Amino acid sequence: MRNRISRCLASLASCFLLGLLGVQPSPCFGQAFVQRVEPAAVTRGEETRVILHGSRLELATALWISVPEGRMKATRVGESTSERAVFDIKVPAGMPLGFYGLRLATESGLSNAHIFLVDEIATVPEEELAVPTGVSPMQAPQVVELPVAIAGSILEEDVDLFAFDAQVGQEVTFEVVGSRLGKGLDPLVTIRDAGGQVILQRDNDVGLFYDLRFAHKFADAGRYTVEVRDSRFRGSDHWGYVLRMGRFPQARVAVPATVPAGKATTLTFPQLGALASPEAGRVTPSGVIDGRMLFALKRPGDDLSAWLPLRISPIETVIEVEPNDVVKQASAAKIPGALHGVIGKPGDMDHFRVSLKKGQLYQVQVETHTIGSPADIELILLDPAGKEVTRADDSGLEEARMNITPPADGEYTLVVRELVNWGGPEFAYAIRFAPRTPGLTLSSGITRVALPLGTRQPLPLSLNQVALSGDVAFRLKGAPKGITMKINEVKQGTREIDNYLLCDSSTEPGVYTIQIEAVSKANSKITTLASTRPLIDRRPTGRGPHGEPFELREDQRRLPPTLTERIAVVVLPTSPFDFELVSPLVTLPRYQTAKVDVKTTRIAGFESPIRFVARGGELDQNNLRKPRVRLHIGEATADNSTTTGTLESYVNTLTHRQRVVLTGTTVYRGRELSLTRTFEIDIVVAFRPGPARKKVTVAAGSSVRVAVRPNRLAPFDGPVMLSLGQVKGLELPGTVVVPAGAKEVEVEVKAAADLKPGTYKVSLSGIARVERFQESAGGEALEVEVTAAK
Amino acid sequence: MMEKTVKRGWPTLGGLVLLVLGGMTPGVAADEPAAGKPAVPKSIEVRPAEVDLVGRREVARLSVLGRQDGGRVTDLSRVAKYTVENPGVVAVTADGRLSAVADGQSRVTVAFGGRSQTITVRVKDFGVANPVDFHTEVIAALSRGGCNQGACHGSPQGKNGFRLSLRGYKPDLDRMTLTREIFGRRTSPQNPDASLILAKAANRVPHVGGRRFRGTEPAYGVLRQWIFEGTRVSESPEGVVKMEVLPGQQTLHTTSPQQQLVARAHFADGSIRDVTHLAVFTTSDIDASSVSDDGLVKFHGTAEVAVLVRYLKQMVSVRLAYVRADPKFVAEKRAEENAIDRLVFAKHRQLQLKASPTASDGTYLRRVYLDLLGVLPSPEEARSYLDSKDPSKHLALVDGLLKRPEFAEFWAMKWLDVMRGNRESITERGVHKLHRYLVRHFAEDRSFGTLARQILTSRGNTIENPTASFFRIARTPEDAAESTAQLFLGVRIQCAKCHNHPYEAITQDDYYGLAAYFARVKLKGRVFGLDREIVYVGREGEVKHAESGAVMKPTAFGKVARDVAVGQDVRPQLADWLVRGENRWFARSTVNRIWAHILGLGIVEPVDDFRKSNPPSNAELLNELARQFVGVDYRFKPVIRSIVTSQAYRLGARPVVQSPHSAAPVRYVTSAVVKMLAAEQILDAISQATGVPEKYKGYPLGTRATQLAEGAVDHNFLKAFTKPVRDVRCDCARETDPTLNQIVHLINNAGILDRFDADSSRLGRMLSAKTPTAEIVEILYLATISRRPSAAERKLALGHVASLPDRAEGLRDIQHALINSNEFLLRH
Q1: CB contact at 8 A, A417 and A443
Q2: Contact A232 B527 (CB under 8 A)
Q3: ipTM tops the 0.90 cut
Q4: Mean pLDDT, range A321-341, rounded to an integer
Q5: Among A66, A373, B468, B497, which is most exposed with the fewest C-beta within 10 angstroms?
Q6: Which of A419, A420, A412, A363 is nearest to A388 (CA)?
Q7: Is B21 on the interface with A (CB under 8 A)?
Q8: pLDDT at residue B585, as a whole number
């Protein structure tokens, strides 16, 4: 670790520079950002002092932790500063080991999420040792005794060294928790003997993302050095890690990996062989209906536990019975079932016999990476005659899945093989094979809400109904009195819900965890919790068009469910202001501008300006790091209750309706407060041709004059060339130009004498130069009713 | 024909010794007669023993060899006397060219120096119409004239509106071009001599390419006759199945600096025809030899050359050696440490070469450090070695160096340079993973055969299995085939993607056959912004021949793979073929790379361009190294040890005066190759000499340049000295010629100058410790150029320091001067 002060100074300098450049800060500036939690692990059954490092941490009030209320208690220690907040976290002895999330609540809102570890021993901090001049830091390790959990961090070009003494034949298990904390760290461990010779070097262990867990038996007694670094020498002062060393299982997969709740299941661990005491692998999940948990495996004599991911599911578990390498040896499996097995060696193929019904839709979903296995599974379904029906591999890095509708009743065979043709004891898999059942999926677009008393904040939801008809209701779980949702029920087929979380003045300010549950009104047993996708970290990217110096990382795909199924809420004191869009829908002609009016209200005596920033839709950066639409809006002041902004469309703007989030931010009594409202922008071509009258009548052999219009949208006022579709028997001009400023032009439509009476449609389209771009648009057709000749 | 008997002397005792020492390739006796007067042979050999002439146009040449003692030959083709038994059947010119007269059979006797041999010549179908064949004669004539070569009308755009297929590989297209384009002006059957192609080729009308044919040349005659006959094209063209070139590989007698070659094409119908008059001849060494259009090779001095003979798609390379005896040449007797020395020095004796004296201890020490580890010895290591009196200290030194981690890092760097692993191709994470993998490979001295197998059969996640990055870099079967050939076979097959290799018997079939091994290799998973991909073997996949469209069977230069089931991997068969001991490319190309990395010049050069027309400078040596390499299961360290402990490696860099009749010495290890150190070596050496480490962005302080995982490092010095960014698969990215930019860096680079002043530098520490000036000067010499100063240098240095008021300033001057000296910057 190196001097962090210089980095802080650099950050300050950056802020100063941004200020000089006149960059308008976005709302995220106002929110606390936690870069690092030190240590990254807290101890079960004890109270651990935790320091949060980051920015805008002043005015910290509480710590939000992603567990039900009261199970972990966090007490603030002293006043926080902008870079640091201190809490004592007390973890009950019965708390399951594993990963949890936290956020810092301040008087301005909630910070980003951060992952921490609940472990069973206290961590030893990584020490910055005084290295004598002329001595390489590589020669000055921190000496530790096993078992140990060391909490450190990896800076750019950093190598951390720890030394320990090993006995002859001693087996030591090593684990680094780094990337599982949601950071970019790719830890690499190198073990050297006393002479500096590399004994082994270890990188990723699949299933642990870029982390590793492995055991090594030391042939010779002596002092060994463990180097921990990022595999690319990258680093950051918020890349924390925990290095665990001692006697604990190196297992990464359990079989079965799906266990029922409330029922004892004995797990096996292919990487360990048969356990001397099988009861160490017994698990009885409780309190979880269908979710995930980490099983802590600790054998007699182990110093520490290893955590293995399990899915809790009521469906029946089937474990392969070897040999099942050919169809005839297939293991029988009941459907629905959770099929488990291990691709024990390269080339191994497992077969399961399943009885399927004609016409029934079955869903087959593989899990490997999420249960700690490196296997890359390919599924092949054979019909009763042994002929291949279908096969499925993953798409990219997701797990394989397939939907099957058998052509006939019968005994089918599911073949499970490793696509890359690897195998070994860790190549376990779990396959959920079940008929498709009606269900719901719900996701929330937000993961944290700062809710001032007496106001509301957006809660956008996405709903998907699978084979399910009827309306869907929403329930708010865990919310305190006074917090409600604006929309509690939607009609069947509704997918996007612009919901709001409302907070009345009776609510007790504080930090809460809420969950949104969707319930089918047709079948109240069909429910689901809203999932969220909190982003942990962010990386500097330089100055963006909105002034933001960071963007969020997207490689945090496997976060603990304790974090992904919960929404953090902080109820703040009453806001001194509120605002609304005058119109919830703004039409923006492409390559033109449109006005956006924002009406603000203030409490008496509040006179601070309110800044607005809009995000979403095409206001966000595209892949060229440029937004296609910008909102230029000034501050709302006490003198002016309505602020007018201008939306401006740039090159390649897409024409569609899009949802935009407008955040108003102010400073009130030393804290920064933000409120968010949503509105829609409908981006359209700046004109839409059409006739002045939709229908005209003309007798065969005579003519009629018809006015056609470009129907421009202000402020566009340029010439438009209209094209009229040609209809046999109708004589009319092919094109006509509507000059700048003119509203319409008249054309003559002449019907041929022999034209059969009836209604004829003349299409209308237009081309115009809008700013620097040629635009074309179709329009409303003109209906010409031709009557018999007079 | 004049005949002259030349007195043949007995070889001297010394000559006999040399013959024994020289093995299969005899040396030259000092009393051999001068060149230009063929010696009387022990026997005479005429080839072919039988000739069939079909039709009136067919001609044939004879190859007449005189066998001498020691296996050397004299070419008598143009000096022998030819006697035809039946002149009514066959005629023969004075230089041995046979032509038909009438149907029948005749014996032809060839005599020289009292030796003779008789052959049979048969003529048939003399009276039968025998039109010119477009595919086998016209195309060959165009090739002969050079019309369809890449630089002329064979370029993709053609030249001046006239486009032929490259080297006639698409005859149908050529026929259309010749007969239909520009209103048929190119060929005029009504008036053949007015045909534009003939007029241009003979330069009767202005032609940018100049005159390609004389009117009397057979190739001109072929073209004219074809036009005269109406530009006919056979519907069932004859296929050429092979070509032979007589008399094949030979070592010429000193009296015979020339050799007539005879090219004979074997056709699918079993017939054999002399095509010497239509073949194209080129020599590998135009300084030492020349070859005429009708296949007469002439040597200008002592040399070994390969003559490439090309006829249509057939190519044959013939190696010829000629030594012009130098009566004053005395072969040196040098100590031989191992087989390398035996073969290197035998080649010296064969080609009348002299080797430089053995290098000094200091030079050897520095050289072996740089060549094996890429770094300099420390002053302590240098002192220890220089002061040791142990006669076998170099052996202990080499053994110690091979165990050091710098060895693995340095050799991993060399291989990464040609594997094209960079951030763009395999991402930063992938580069580091591959680097670590190769470092471990060389540190543990694992089998290179195993590594090749792992790479070629690799699969899985490229981050977990770095060897699979090979397929992330070479993403198509064609690219994988090209990389395989260049990296593991030392062969460049890229040309064969569009046409058969112009200088080697590598065909498009070879190219697409090799590519077919990789047809089922698939990649997936480049999503989510994650820097990993997964290599796997798909159920199916095929490679089609670019020209014929045929689906190719996996074939490694003639070795056809066994069929494998759907979804099975055929690549292991390629790996099996590759690392089998009898594979003629893998071991030889790999040891050649090793040799080139250590000696500075490959036995085959460029190292990845093995072909018959680019022969090794010492085939026996290459074979011996390959044999050793195979014998140690393709491990590098034993072979490297064998090389760097040889006397040949220990030769000094100062060249010696060679015999005027010796071969050009450059390729024959007569002295150490002097070359600029690589960018990383120079920078590491400066860091070592000054005692101040260089800082590379993204790496911890103390990391050496040779330890960097990446090629494209943002470092001005490394860029100036052309550290490769690893985007090509050859060793060609490093510039070997110094540039002004480099000189400026060495003289004026602030980062380097600051090191001299730094208190923490080697010099700064010695000054702080008040080390005596003489001691400092010695240590600076040892740290910078790995030797002590001579008495004169010491006096000069001490005098300079004494002349300045500040001794530190004087000592900095000395270090600066040493770092800018040739002795420091060059490997010598």
Answers
A1: no
A2: no
A3: no
A4: 94
A5: B497
A6: A412
A7: no
A8: 92
pLDDT more than 90, % of chain A:
70
Does residue B769 sit at the A interface (CB-CB below 8 Å)? no
* pLDDT > 90: percent of chain B: 63
* Inter-chain CB proximity A157 and B530 less than 8 Å: no
Distance from CA of B637 to the nearest CA of A (A): 18
Strand order in the sheet with A671-684: A585-589, A671-684, A657-668, A611-615
For residues A647 and B320, give the distance between their C-alpha atoms in angstroms, rounded to a whole number.
Answer: 82
Please confirm whether the linkage preceding B87 is cis (ω < 30° from 0): no
On the 0-12 / 13-18 / 19+ scale of CB atoms within 10 A, B385 is buried
Distance of CA B112 to the CA centre of its chain: 39
Overall size of chain A counted in residues: 790
Q: Measure CB to CB from residue B429 to each of A156, A186, A421 and give the nearest one.
A: A186
Which residues of B fall within a CB distance of 8 Å from A419?
534, 536
Tokens linked to A721: 């060339």
Cβ <8 Å between B440 and A201: yes
Q: Which of A215-224, A478-487, A599-608, B311-320 has the lowest mean pLDDT?
A: B311-320
pTM over 0.90: no
Q: Exposed e or buried b for every residue in B414-439, given b needs 16+ CB within 10 A?
A: bbbbbbbbbbebbbbbbbbbbbbbbb
Going by pLDDT thresholds of 50, 70 and 90, the confidence category of residue B98 is very high
How close does chain A come to B464, measured CA to CA in Å? 7
Give the phi and the psi of residue B613 in degrees, each rounded to 5: -80, 0
Query: Rounded to whole angstroms, how far apart are CA atoms A767 and A776?
Result: 4
CA gap A666, B462 in Å, rounded:
49
Which one of A204, A420, A555 has the shortest CB-CB distance to B528? A555
Selected residue of B407, B409, B423, B432 to mutate for chain A interface (largest A Cβ count, 10 A)? B432
- Please confirm whether the linkage preceding A256 is cis (ω < 30° from 0): yes
φ and ψ at residue A308, rounded to 5 degrees: -125, 135
Burial label for A604, CB within 10 Å (0-12, 13-18, 19+), is exposed
Report how many Cβ contacts below 8 Å link chain A to chain B: 77
Report the alpha-carbon distance of residue A123 to residue A242 in Å, rounded: 8
3-state secondary structure of A478: coil
Nearest C-alpha in A relative to B463: A204
Q: Which of A172, A66, A61, A166 is nearest to A107 (CA)?
A: A61
Identify the band that residue A544 occupies on the pLDDT scale cut at 50, 70 and 90.
Answer: very low
- Asked if the Cβ–Cβ distance from A397 to B529 is below 8 Å, we say no
A97-101, A222-226, B180-184: the lowest-pLDDT one: B180-184
* Residue numbers in B near A421 (CB within 8 A): 459, 536-537, 569
List the single residue in A201, A204, A233 with the smallest CB-CB distance to B463.
Answer: A204
Q: Which residue has the tokens 């202990």?
A: B396
State whether residue B433 sits within 8 Å of chain A by CB: yes
Structural tokens at position A371: 């249960």
Q: Quote the pLDDT of residue A689.
A: 96
Q: Let me know: does A103 contact A111? Beta carbons within 8 Å.
A: yes
Tell me the pairing of strands A98-106 and A114-119. Answer: antiparallel
pLDDT in tens, B402-459: 999 999 999 999 999 999 989 888 989 999 999 999 999 999 999 999 999 999 999 9
Q: Are A640 and A460 a contacting pair, CB within 8 Å?
A: no
Contact B700 A233 (CB under 8 A): yes
- On chain A, the residues whose CB falls within 8 A of the CB of B535 are 420
Inter-chain CB proximity B433 and A421 less than 8 Å: no
CA distance B556 to B516: 9
Say whether B698 and A421 touch across the interface (CB within 8 A): no
